[in-house]
Each structure stands twice: as C-alpha cells, then as structure tokens.
Amino acid sequence: METLALTSAIPLLLALLSISPCKLTLIKSVVPSALWIHFCLIAWLCWPVITETIPEIRISQGLALSHLGALFLLLTIFVAASALTHAKFFFDKEESRTAAPAPRHVAIFYACSNLFLLAMCWVFFCDNLGYLWIAIEATTLTSAPLVYFGRTRHALEATWKYLIICSVGIAFALLGTVFIFASSQHGAIAGGSLVISELIHNGSQLQYSLMRLGFIFCLLGYGTKAGLFPLHSWLPDAHAEAPAPASALLSGSLLNCALFGIWRVNEIMVSTRHNLISHDLIVWLGTITVLAASIFLVRQHGFKRLWAYSSIENVGIMLVAIGLGSGALFFLQALNHSIAKVSLFLLSGNIVQSTGSKSLGEIRGVIKFAPVWGLLLALSAFAVTGAPPFGAFLSEWLILTSAADAANWAVVITLILGLTLSFVAVSNHLVKVLFGNPKPSYAYFQPILTSLLPACLVACSLVLGFTTGYEVFKAVQ
Amino acid sequence: MSITLAGMIAITAAVTAILMVGSRQLSMNLVLYSVQTLLVAGLTIVIGIQHQESNLFLIALAVASIKAIGIPRAFLWIVKAIQVRSDPGTILPAPLAMHFGIVLMGASSLLTSGLPVPQGTAKISLEATAALSLLLTGILLMLTRRVALSQILGFLTIENGIYLFALTQTSGMPLIVEMGILLDVLVAVMIAGLLLFRIKSSFEHIDVTQLTGLKD
Hints:
The complex is a heterodimer.
Chain A: H1 2-19, H2 24-50, E1 56-60, E2 63-66, H3 67-96, H4 103-125, H5 129-147, H6 153-183, H7 196-201, H8 208-226, H9 234-241, H10 244-271, H11 276-298, H12 303-323, H13 327-355, H14 366-369, H15 371-385, H16 391-405, H17 409-434, H18 447-467, H19 469-476
Helix pairs in contact in A: 1-2, 1-4, 2-3, 2-4, 3-4, 3-10, 3-13, 4-5, 4-10, 5-6, 5-10, 6-8, 6-9, 8-10, 9-10, 9-12, 10-12, 10-13, 11-12, 11-17, 12-13, 12-17, 13-15, 13-16, 13-18, 15-17, 15-18, 16-17, 16-18
Chain B: H1 5-22, H2 26-51, H3 54-82, H4 94-112, H5 126-144, H6 148-169, H7 175-203
Helix pairs in contact in B: 1-2, 1-4, 1-5, 2-3, 2-6, 3-7, 4-5, 5-6, 6-7
C-alpha cells in the first residue's frame, strides 16, 4: 500500500505546489529535485520486485505491481524527472523572448505534467481492466493542457484532435473491456471479473468468441493511443505542437503506457491457449506500423514531426516484441527508445528556440552555430534509429532474431526494410540540418546547461549498449 | 419476440439517437441527448429493481444528474454564448444520414444475433441491439457533422451505447469502475467545452472540417 501511496503523494503534492501562489523560479527548481528524490525512493521500494526476490507487490484486489510494471514505473519517473529538469532551461529561455508565456500558463504546465505523471504511474499498478482504462483515459485528459501550452491556432487544433481521436479510440477499448468482462461470465468466474490476474488464471474457461472481440477492440483502442498505423494521425500533431519537455514526456512515457495496456490484454489472450490470432495480429500490426512510419519519415518537412514519426516506428517495433510474447524485449526496446527520444526532443526544443522555426527547410548548420547540440543531436538520432553501439541496436537485433526464430520471414524482411529506410531517411534529414550555413537570425544561448541533460541521456544510451548485452541474452533465452 | 419494458426503453433511447442525426439544430440535439440519457438512467433503475442491486440506483442517479442534466445544460449555455445554432453537416445531408441510422439499427440487430447469449437468458435481447445501434449512430453523428459540439455529442452517444451494453449484457460493471469512467467522461467533456470556446475565439468558427493547419 505504501508503494502506491508514495507514488501518488509526491506528484500530487508537486501539482498542488505548482498551482499555489509560489514563485515560479521556486517551482522550476523544486519540482525536478523532488522528482529525482521520488525516483530514488520508488527504486528502493520496488527493488525486491525488480530483482525478482518477490514476484509482485500486491496492494489489494485489482491493484498490484508486477516485475515488468515496476520496471516501466521507474522508467516513467526517470523520463518525467529528466524532462522536467530540462524544462527549467526551456522556460527560462521562453520567458526571455518578446512573446513570453504568461507565468500562470507555465504554472499550469507544471501542475498538469505532475498530474500526468501520476496518471501514468497508476497505469502500471492496475491489475483490473476497468482501472486500467480509467488510468489510460486520465493520461489523455491530463496531457491535453500540455499540448495546448503554446495557445496558438496550431496548438489548439493539435489539442482538439488529440482529445477527440484518443477519447473515441479509448472508448473502443472500453467496449473491448466490456466484452472481456462478459466473456468471464460464461462459467469461468462466478459473477464475472475484471481482475487481470484472475482472468489469466481462468484463461482457458473464458468464452472465446467474446474474448477475441474484446481483445481486438482493446488492441485498436489502446493502439490509437500508442500511435498504431493507421490510427496515428493525432500523434505527429500533438508531439510537434507541444513544448519540448511535453513532447519528451508524450513520446518517452505516454506511448509506453498505452503499449503496456496492450501487453496486459495480450497476456489474457495468451492464457486462453487459443493464441493463434493474437500473436500474428500484433506482430503484423507492428510490422506495418514500422514500414508506414519509415515511409512517412522520408517525406517530412517538420523537425519535431520527424521525431514523432520515429516514435511511431519504435511503437511498431515494441508491438512486434509484445506479439512475440517477450516482456524483456518489450521493456528493453522501450527503455532504449525513451532515453534516446527524450534527449532528441529536448535538443530539438533548444534548436527550435534558437532558430525560431520548426520547419526542416529553415534549420541549417546546427554544427556550426552550436557544435555541442549538433554532436548530441547526431548521437541521439543514431541511438533512436538503432545504430550500433547504442542500446537500441541490441534490442532491435534481438527482436529480429526472435522473429526469425519464430520462422516469421515475411515479418523479418519487412522489418529490416522499414528499419533501413528510416535510418536512411533520418540520416538524410539530419545531414541537411547539421551542415550548411546557419542564418544570421539564429540566436545561440547557454551551451552548457541546455546540453547537460541530453548529454547524460546519450551517455546512458551508450552504457546500455555496452553493458546490457550478456544479461539480456540470458533473460531472453 | 416478447418485448420487455427494459427492451422498450432501450430501443426508445436508440431512436432518440437516430433523431439526433436527423436534426441540425444544436439545441434540439442537446435536448434529444438529454432525453436519451434519461432513458438510459431509467433503464438502469428498471434493471436495478429486477435484479435488486442497490448499486445500480446510485449509478442511475449519477448518470442522470451528470450526463442527462449537467452536461446538456452546460452546453446549452455554451451554444448561446458562442452563437452557433445549427450544424450544416458534411458528406451526407441530415435526412439521408437519419435514414442511414435506421439501416444501422437493422445491421446491429443482425450483428448482435451472432453474439453469445449471456448466461441466465434465453436469447439475445433487444437491449443489445439498442446498445450497438447507439454506438453506431454515435459514430455516424461524428462522421456526418462538422461542428465541434456535434463531435462531442457523438462521443457521448458512443459512450452511452457502451454503457448500455455493459448494463444489459453483463451482470453490471463494479461500482467503482463505473464511477471512474463517469468521472473521466465528465472531465473529457469539460476540457472539450473549454477548447470549444478557444476554437470559437481564435478561428471565429467551430467547424472541425476546417481545422487543417497541421499536415505533413
């Protein structure tokens, strides 16, 4: 119980602090430091689950923290702490501009990002499909104000699309949840149950045709939230219009939450032992998403939209890992993607602030006017596209070999095609951004503080690439 | 087929949804939505009496007060404030869309006949047809309308359909889950309502088909 109480208490207190009449400078430094302390505390509390000394932390009927859930919980808090640490430098720069955001809007941003973190943390505690739905819908509601931060027409349009598309998508997941609930009432559990562990335990007695319907609706519903092709249309808009720290939060942690929902539903589906369709369906949806996203990457004009499509590509890869039934690979890919992508979005935020443009055609010569940013941007982009020696290379390689082990050659070939295409596309765009002559209107600022966090993240990604190899091979085998 | 009281109420709710697709007046749509949700709340009470579940009375009260009275009242006020009275519609003209809604009701009858029958009942009921019909009509409303407010109403109708399905085809979702869902929907609609005002003041219209500033 104390795990859940503590996980909820700190973000809640920070959200209250943000809307209290405190000085904004205080909020900007208190929130990140509190979140790093929060990260350490939760890591200490979850340590027995992470090292698998105990199988899970069970809080009550319908609330439990599993091994995978604990790993994702820590990753989510890590991403939030990183993004909000960088947010201080981001908003300091924003406030020095002529069209500075109102202090109240910045305070609302901090309050909503803490509530958003809270909703995301709850997702991993849910052992009940109903609670899971409520938590995932709550992540949409608390993050919509983050997307709207800019208060421009474009931000408004992106927020509207985000809210409506995700809410309707999630409504289908609710229908799926009702179907799964109904499937448990055909003799499996008296009175039916929404508790995921009970459903898994009685998997073989669930009414299969209802369960299958429920699974498909949940997959599409949570898939909308994860940016599954062709339901991804909200994702690039929201990621591009949100301020950089919010984009990092959306890409680095929100997508993981939605995928975690799919993972839980898939666990139930697998337990019915009729798992013929679920594996192929998820693997193929993931593969098509990878290929489609890489095609979108080729003809991209927006700087931040580029990374948004790269997130969709990574969602596809994670879906393949889920479809292959490997929680370890799913988490490893999510970890590598989140770390590198947060770094990319934060750096892109810096560059967009300096150049005053989000268009790929307008940004030139980053390596000349800000060498540190340019270098870090190139390294993070390589890390995200899965180039060696970064961590993502390892996880993508393992996912490909697992798919090959399952003799799924069509999937392997399509995936390789998609991954190669996206690597070429990203490199191509990156060369144009990095080299060439910077415009005189660019304003360069504070190189050290604004590159600090991305540099740490890139280092993390490198360390992951070099160290996780042996343990991961052992875990996967 | 013997028609039960519950079935009658459910079908009437589905019919009000089809009427919503046929009406272009936003205030009329809001009143129809309110009636539809009141019927759904009434059905909850009927089932509560039949199964002697006191939880359902609580849920019915929450549904009636929040979704049937609170939300439509707030939106009627917004409609007055932003002075948008009717929805010109896209793709299909309103009367044609309404007839299409009737076809969808027939289709949902066919679709639900393929579903496994819940335990304790002889055959798939009229309520399941009504629930699916509400859901499909909600989607139809979202697709054929261009005003942002109609999109919200479409979403709410879809949500009513899912609620009705859960109510009649399962032994009822746990109270805490129902309340959580209701809270989420309420907050979603409140945020959407706030955005409506912003869209009106910065674009000077609330036509979502014209929101095309963002593309690849």
